[in-house]
């Protein structure tokens, strides 16, 4: 191959990279793209893409579960990256010959695998570091010498009678509970995000309850009133005063920042 041919080929490859236009369908994917040092290729994302700070400036193509096809197409993307719950949206995009990539971000292992897949797709060299950070967090997380049952709750509620979402199995929160050498208070394996009522909560009788609270989504909740409701619940967690709120913004997001979530929740389980 001549020098001229190599030069032309190189220019063509660089041109393709320069024209890359990525649309992210979730905050998690947005975070990972930025962490892979390809944030400048993002042209749009979904609601609640709040990290890093630059992500707040991106145009919004809709909600987490209902992105707008017309808005996505208006950005002329070369790649749309979503998750399994975006399957219907991505099928529609394929009709318009838009390249899509579906990632699985449910468990710690699937998050690591997806980081590697996305890194390869967008020609990044930063996946090794991100995965190493997760592995280091697992290795260095405090391990409980006296294992106990833990229930992780999504969101802070003043009314505990219905609609309480918790972490089940086959999800990264369950992995973290095991990493910290504790057990998930939810024993059924039927779903990764079960919805419980008051009676279900009492029946599980967890020894510790960790509530994941985000001001971005639970802005109008009376925190003290909600905590009082949980402490009145007849469980071992209430009896032993092991009910706490974790309000770090990253805990809800299955991205490379799961490394932070591992460290934070394992610390909470060992305090």
From TrEMBL:
This protein's record includes keyword Signal: yes
Protein name: ABC transporter substrate-binding protein
Species, as recorded: Candidatus Sulfurimonas marisnigri
Domain of life from the UniProt record: Bacteria
Keywords linked to the UniProt accession: Signal
NCBIfam families: TroA_like
Keyword flag Cell membrane: no
InterPro entries, per the entry: ABC_Transporter_SBP, ABC_transptr_periplasmic_BD, Vit_B12_bind_prot
Limits of the Fe/B12 periplasmic-binding domain: 21-271
């Amino acid at each position: 191959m001549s020098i001229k041919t190599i030069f032309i080929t190189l220019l063509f490859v660089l041109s393709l990279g320069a024209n890359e236009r990525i649309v992210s369908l979730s905050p998690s994917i947005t975070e990972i793209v930025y962490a892979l040092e390809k944030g400048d290729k993002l042209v749009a994302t979904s609601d609640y893409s709040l990290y890093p700070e630059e992500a707040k400036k991106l145009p919004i193509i809709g909600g987490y579960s209902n992105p707008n096809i017309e808005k996505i197409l208006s950005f002329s993307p070369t790649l749309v990256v979503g998750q399994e719950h975006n399957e219907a949206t991505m099928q529609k995009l394929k009709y318009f010959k838009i390249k899509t990539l579906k990632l699985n971000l449910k468990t710690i292992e699937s998050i690591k695998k997806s980081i590697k897949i996305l890194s390869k797709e967008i020609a990044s060299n930063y996946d090794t570091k991100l995965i190493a950070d997760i592995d280091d967090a697992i290795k260095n997380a405090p391990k409980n010498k006296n294992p106990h049952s833990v229930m992780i709750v999504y969101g802070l509620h003043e009314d505990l009678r219905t609609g309480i979402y918790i972490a089940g199995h086959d999800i990264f929160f369950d992995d973290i509970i095991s990493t910290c050498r504790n057990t998930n208070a939810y024993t059924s394996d039927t779903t990764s995000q079960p919805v419980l009522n008051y009676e279900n909560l009492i029946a599980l009788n967890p020894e510790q309850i960790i509530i994941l609270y985000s001001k971005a989504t639970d802005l109008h909740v009376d925190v003290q009133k909600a905590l009082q409701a949980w402490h009145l619940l007849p469980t071992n967690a209430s009896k032993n005063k092991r009910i706490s709120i974790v309000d770090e913004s990253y805990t809800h997001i299955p991205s490379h920042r799961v490394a932070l979530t591992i460290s934070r929740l394992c610390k909470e389980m060992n305090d």
